[in-house]
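lol forgot to send this yesterday, sorry. struct tokens for the thing we talked abt
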């Protein structure tokens, strides 16, 4: 827990950017999560550097989030400092086939900037509600492509507040993972390389992907997208459905009746409800298929 003197110091360092006991439900697409002791949305890279080195020197726990679209924050909230990389770090530039984006830019903004400039490759990202930073860390993907296919390099900040460049091959991308996940580096900027493509054809693909999402995903309820990773060669959604879990409910958390790998918040679901449902789904899938479903969503905080 941060002392009142510490809070005062931090507030003086980053005026207007620091909140105490901020409900994380406001910052996750599941609309679930208890309070963060300290929540900061830095106004720029300089402010971010000041913040991370301040936190580092005091040995406080530090967590980075983007749009919170792959996060389950527990009901007891987060002890330490949560840093949201948001719109202030979200500038997007396209030069020939290179797209450079601040980590806080939404993937949809990147995809549409690329489309307007006739740069193909990011069509798959249409409808993924994450930031560029979160997408790199998670190696977000869909329709057979993922960020790993496009990322050339990232700019990260270390706990001392210094910037470093890392090439794609240094990031160990895998299925919905990279070596940035759970680490101490914060992504500040992402550089992607696409291919030259007719903007009309890019737009047509984007519209098709979006229509498919609208038809197959429960987009009218808060969720975090796919809860479980697909086991090799299998679809988690299919396994969950076959194990009889579709529509299963715990409090206001429900295994979606539209897409069984989504758990939706019907209104007042708590993290405890979601965790109980996750556990029941894992047990039933294991009982039926002998397969242990691994979580894709990242869990933060305490009960
Ligand atoms: C309706 C819906 C559909 C979805 N569809 C897809 C899909 O098709 N494919 C897919 O892959 N995902 C999908 N997702 C999940 C999610 O959108 C992606 O994983 C996205 O990339 C997460 O980005 P974010 O900014 O929200 O990250 P967050 O959820 O905020 O964070 C995710 C992880 O990244 C870390 N992180 C975030 N930003 C940074 C940063 N700047 N520096 C360091 N670490 C950081 C966090 O600490 C956390 O561990 C979907 C989610 C929803 C709600």
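and heres what i got for the seq, position by position
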């Amino acid at each position: 827990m941060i002392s009142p003197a510490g809070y005062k110091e931090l507030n003086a360092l980053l005026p207007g950017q620091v909140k105490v006991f901020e409900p994380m439900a406001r910052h996750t697409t599941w609309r679930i999560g208890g309070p963060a002791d300290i929540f900061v949305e830095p106004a720029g890279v300089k402010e971010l550097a000041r913040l991370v080195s301040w936190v580092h020197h005091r040995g406080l726990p530090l967590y980075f989030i983007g749009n919170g679209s792959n996060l389950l924050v527990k009901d007891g909230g987060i002890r330490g400092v949560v840093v949201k990389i948001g719109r202030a770090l979200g500038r997007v530039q396209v030069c020939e086939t290179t797209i450079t984006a601040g980590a806080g830019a939404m993937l949809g903004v990147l995809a549409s900037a690329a489309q307007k400039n006739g740069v193909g490759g990011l069509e798959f990202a249409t409808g993924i509600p994450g930031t560029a930073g979160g997408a790199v860390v998670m190696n977000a993907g869909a329709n057979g492509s993922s960020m790993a296919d496009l990322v050339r390099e990232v700019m990260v900040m270390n706990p001392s507040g210094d910037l470093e460049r890392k090439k794609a091959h240094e990031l160990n991308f895998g299925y919905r993972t990279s070596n940035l996940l759970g680490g101490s580096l914060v992504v500040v900027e992402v550089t992607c390389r696409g291919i030259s493509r007719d903007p009309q054809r890019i737009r047509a693909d984007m519209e098709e992907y979006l229509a498919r999402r609208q038809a197959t995903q429960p987009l009218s309820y808060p969720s975090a997208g796919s809860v479980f990773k697909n086991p090799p060669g299998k679809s988690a959604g299919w396994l969950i459905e076959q194990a009889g879990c579709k529509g299963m409910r715990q409090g206001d958390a429900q295994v979606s009746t539209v897409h069984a790998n989504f758990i939706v918040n019907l209104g007042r679901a708590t993290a405890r409800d979601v965790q109980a449902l996750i556990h029941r789904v894992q047990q039933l899938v294991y009982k039926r298929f002998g397969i242990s479903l691994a979580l894709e969503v990242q869990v933060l905080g305490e009960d």
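Residues 225 and 262 are 6 Å apart (CA to CA). anyway ping me if u want another try
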